Amino acid sequence: SNRTMRLRFYILTFVLHILTFSGAAEIDENGYIAYCPCMGRFGNQADHFLGSLSFAKKLNRTLIIPPWIVHGYRGYGDDSFIPYSRWFQVNALKPYHRVIEMKEFMLEIAPSIWLPEKRYIYCHESTFKRSEDKKSCPAKSGNPFGPFWDNFKIDFPASEGFPTHLHFHSSKKEWDSVYPATSHPVLAFMGAPASYPVNEKDKQLQRYVQWTKDLENSAGKLIDLKLKKPYVGIHFRNGMDWKKACDHVKNGLDYPFMSSPQCTGYQRSTSKRFTYEMCYPSLNTVKSHVLSLVKESNSNSLFIATDASSYENEFNNMFKEAGLDVSIVKLENDELMMDLALLIESDRFIGSCGSSVTAFVSRKREVLGRPNEYFGASDKHNEADRSEL
């Protein structure tokens, strides 16, 4: 009868409605991993992100993607927590592993599997020493730790100190035996479950870190508008804080210093020595390298991204003396993402060996099959005369 048909129709609609809404946030029975990206600025956080993605895949738990912490620096105003999805596509990560943004997790999933009174924070037992009561993880002490969790209204009534034999390199089996997903659905770590610099095997995960279409289009328009191709892109660090860091390298180092493995090599047995000139190249080294690469690639433009002085006048004079017509472009506003996008798209690129911002660019260029060079890393350009600095 019509009445039965109508009833069936309503039931079916109701069931579909429930399925549609429950499907929006399917709960992962294998559990979740959360962490605070609390070490350093964007470049370091990006290294940690790749390592954490790899760790989540190893444990077969969904990675809760934290926002980027920008500390209101470089022109982002007071908005200190930038969702991953503002700059990058979340869906592009999914062919590699299951992910969910933190905001979405807290809204849709936390209410059913991560109740406020059951929120544990996980850290190494040895970290307890740093807390006031000496028997908990100091998860929210200091900035950005406190503000990060507060931003999502997260408190931790209890801590889990993992035993000394357990660490981020341990196997899934070892983690599961100590923290099965049934009783520990969310492993929330004080810091990233990853190393800095990123492990060599995880570098290729950069292929899954893809700009949003908007950002990609803006970068494309900017290139068409401002840059005459082919162009050389350079990234160098010469601010005071960087100089201070490089003072530790005065006599060279045989072990990794910040992001140095990108140009010295990852294998200790075969890696090159990291020198002061690689860390803080002289202006002569920078100029010599840029000039030879511009000539070699017949480039029409030079794109400069830097944290301090861009040496535009010096480059202009150098090109004039060499009889070259090369336009110099530097973004007026300090827009880190746009800098990165333009460096990735450059025909040739020279970066700073110790910098994690350079490393973000060079990893992406590597997976795209584009060449990378580093200031101070090749003997033919090294002119360590510091008189001009």
Automatic annotation (TrEMBL):
Q: Which residues form the signal peptide?
A: 1-24
Keywords for the protein's UniProt record, in alphabetical order: Carbohydrate metabolism, Disulfide bond, Endoplasmic reticulum, Fucose metabolism, Glycoprotein, Glycosyltransferase, Notch signaling pathway, Signal, Transferase
Q: Quote the subcellular location field of this record.
A: Endoplasmic reticulum
Pathway entry: Protein modification; protein glycosylation
Q: Supply the EC number(s).
A: 2.4.1.221
The question of whether Transferase is a record keyword is answered with: yes
Family, similarity comment: Belongs to the glycosyltransferase 65 family.
Q: What is this protein called?
A: GDP-fucose protein O-fucosyltransferase 1
**Source organism of the structure:** Ciona intestinalis
